[in-house]
Amino acid sequence: MTFCIGMKVAEGLVGIADTRVTSGMEWITARKVVVLERTGHTMFIMTSGLRSARDKALTYFDEVLEDQDASFDKLYKAVNAFAEQVRRVTAEDKKALVDSGLDLNLYCIIGGQLEKDREHKLYLLYPQANWVEVAQGTPYYVIGESSYGKPLLDRALSYETSMETALKLGYLAFDATRIAAVDVDFPIDVVMYRTGSYHITQHRYTAEELKHISQEWQEKLLVSVNQLPGDWMRVVLENSRIDKA
Predict the structure, then answer these.
(1) Is the pTM above the cut of 0.85?
(2) pLDDT one-digit tens code per residue, 89-148
(3) CB-hemisphere CA count at 13 Å for 225?
(4) Residue 170: pLDDT above 90?
(5) Residues ≥6 apart with Cβ < 8 Å to 35
(6) CA distance 111 to 106
(7) What is the C-alpha separation between 41 and 37, in angstroms, rounded?
(8) How far is CA 150 from the centre of its chain?
(9) Helix 207-227 and helix 163-180: axis angle, to 10°?
(10) What is the distance in angstroms between the CA of the first residue and the CA of the last residue of the chain?
(11) Cβ(210)–Cβ(171) under 8 Å?
(12) Cβ(46)–Cβ(125) under 8 Å?
């Protein structure tokens, strides 16, 4: 499976992608985010789903950029061009994949800013190659294992959140997913884009580098649970003692 998250806050974009790729009982480490930077054109693509479909679509898209990059002045135009390559892969490979018992289930998060975009943009591309743009009300997308980190993100992440805090929340969402899902794991790739900069910062973190963050979060959770008011439990606890007697 996969954990990829893209977050859009007022300051910019934050993305985190795990690197575990599973095939049957085997797994490898492979990058799931691609950064594409040219003058005035900055974007990243995160993927979840069949690895061969992802690689083929990206290869086709590289050729499109070589020929047509100058014609893309807004990110949605580049997203449309990538969607066309997903459709092309689907047309070429879907029947053979289905006959083999495989699904062409490619989901993508695409973020960045091109020269005529007034601000940074973030899109979710579905396997059918249609897309939606992130809204300020829920300023993130998760592809792959999406359920385990969602409660934290829905409670704590907003469009006004700083990029620093967004990165912390994104990591904690990944950490919750890593603990619950055996096919999501370190290393993780982080990408950050500050609006108007036309430059994406990248860094890979290992489990050892972030072990202390996970441990401290675990300790703080336990302390917080113990500090929660308990008066609302009194009637249940008292009745349980009576029932036991």
Answers:
(1) yes
(2) 999 999 999 999 998 999 999 999 999 999 999 999 999 999 999 999 999 999 999 999
(3) 6
(4) yes
(5) 43, 44, 191, 200, 202
(6) 16
(7) 6
(8) 11
(9) 90
(10) 49
(11) yes
(12) no
